[in-house]
Each structure stands twice: as structure tokens, then as C-alpha cells.
Amino acid sequence: MTERSKSDCTTTSAGPQGQELDLLTGSDAVKVILLGDSAVGKSKLVERFLLDGYRPHQLSTYALTLYRYTHKAPDGHEIPVDFWDTAGQERFNSMHPSYYYKAHACIMVFDVTRKITYKNLEKWYTELQEYCQGIPTIVVANKIDIDYKVTSKNFAFASKRKLPFFFVSASDGTNVVKVFSSAILAGEKRKLTPKDDFYNDVLDLLGEIGTDLKADGEDNPLDNN
Fold first, then answer.
1. Tell me, what DSSP letter sits at residue 62?
2. Where are the beta strands (DSSP E) in the chain?
3. Does the keyword Nucleotidyltransferase apply (predicted)?
4. DSSP 151-212
5. What is the pLDDT of residues 14-68, one digit of tens each?
6. 100-147 pLDDT tens trace
7. CATH top-level class of 4-224
8. How many DSSP H helices and E strands does the chain contain?
């Protein structure tokens, strides 16, 4: 299992808003954002990856939750990571542009028990590309523990766009470490690679990652539920 460690952060500006601004702008970490409809389990997935006892930073002024973390890569080097969660912004069907600013990777989540969350992936992906064109993106189908039969269905959204796809469960941990570790490594690659070489390098990296990418099938298999 990938070794994981938690790190604390310090703030210097006086007042809650100043402290929040320091958290947003004072980091040189790999920035991984989570996208998807409300209540698909984005926060639960982050918390499952970070394990119990981790206390996130609730940035109420900016309507987001920031998880600051240090990841140990397979070769042993440490990667500082900031996970950004939406804290309810998605209820307005759009994210503030600052949410996407300098993002290095994205984990896009839908709930296998609610077909509308799958349909809305198109909306989220379009907005993501508007602000972060070419960003490494991993699509995850969450809550498979409710009905594991869903893993036999084809979800064409990811395969049509050649995006890595995983079935996951925040409840029992299925594929959670694999998803987040993959996103961190792809995000680090985007952060460190010159723009001209980035796209091909990330495709190579993601191609080496064992995913549960499905072949093209129904556009919306959840319609059959």
C-alpha cells in the first residue's frame, strides 16, 4: 500500500480572511481539485484516502475545503499536495474561476445510484476544459458498494475522451488509494513538465497506471437501473 503522511500548515496573515488567503496563495504544492454534483461523495473519498483523524481547513470565505497533505511517491520522494473540495459551490451549477486556478489534476466524481450525476459530467468537464485545458482528469464512479452489479456496466463518458476510469467506494475503500495516487503523480508531471512536452508525457504516465477503463458502451447505462 502506498505510504501516506499528513502535514500541518501555518498561516501568517491576521484575521480569518487573511489566513484563508495565505492558504490559497502561499503553497507551491501539487493542486488536485475534485469536481462533480453535490452529495456524490467527493469529501468522503478524500477523507477515506487521508484516513481518520485528519482535520481539513474549512475556508468559508472562499466556499471550499482545503486538505494539505504530503504524499510519498513509489521512488521515495515526497510530494506536497493540496486537495481542493467544493464545500457546496457545485449546488450553483458552476465553480468560481479561482477554484480552477493553477490546478494540476482533477478527480471527477459521479454517484452510480443517481443517473443525473452521470449526465452532469459533461457540464463539469466542459467547464474544467474552459479553465484548465488538457488537465489530467480521472473519472470515478462512486458508491459501488451499494450494488456491485453496476461494475459490469459500460460508462462511455470516460472512454470516449480517453480518460482513466475507476469504480470506487468511499465506504469500503475500493480503488481509493489508486485513484488519488494516480492523480497526484499526473499532477506532479503537469506541474514540472514544460507545456510543449506535457500532454504526451501525461498520456504515457496514465497509460502505465492500471485502471478499470471500460470500452465504449451505452452513453448512460444508469438509465437501465
1. G
2. 4-6, 30-35, 57-59, 64-72, 78-85, 105-111, 137-142, 165-167
3. no
4. GGS--HHHHHTT--EEE--TTT-TTHHHHHHHHHHHHHHHHHS-HHHHHHHHHHHHHHS---
5. 334 444 444 554 568 999 999 999 999 999 999 999 885 445 555 444 457 888 8
6. 999 999 999 999 999 999 999 999 999 999 999 999 999 999 999 999
7. alpha beta
8. 8, 8
Name the one residue in this structure whose C-alpha cell is 503537469.
Answer: 190
Between CA 46 and CA 221, with CA 131 as vertex, the angle to 5 degrees is 60
Nine-digit cell at 123?
457540464
Q: Which amino acid is it at 28?
A: D
Picking from 111, 221, 106, 224, the residue whose alpha carbon sits closest to that of residue 155 is: 221
The answer to whether the CB of 150 falls within 8 A of the CB of 144 is: yes
- Nine-digit cell string for 37: 454534483
Q: How far is CA 33 from CA 3, 109, 147, 149, 222, in A?
A: 21, 11, 27, 29, 25
Question: What is the spatial distance between Cα 115 and Cα 43, in angstroms, rounded to a whole number?
Answer: 20
Domain boundaries, the chain: 4-224
Of 159, 177, 150, nearest to 45 (Cα)? 177
Angle, helices 42-50 vs 176-192, to 10°: value is 90
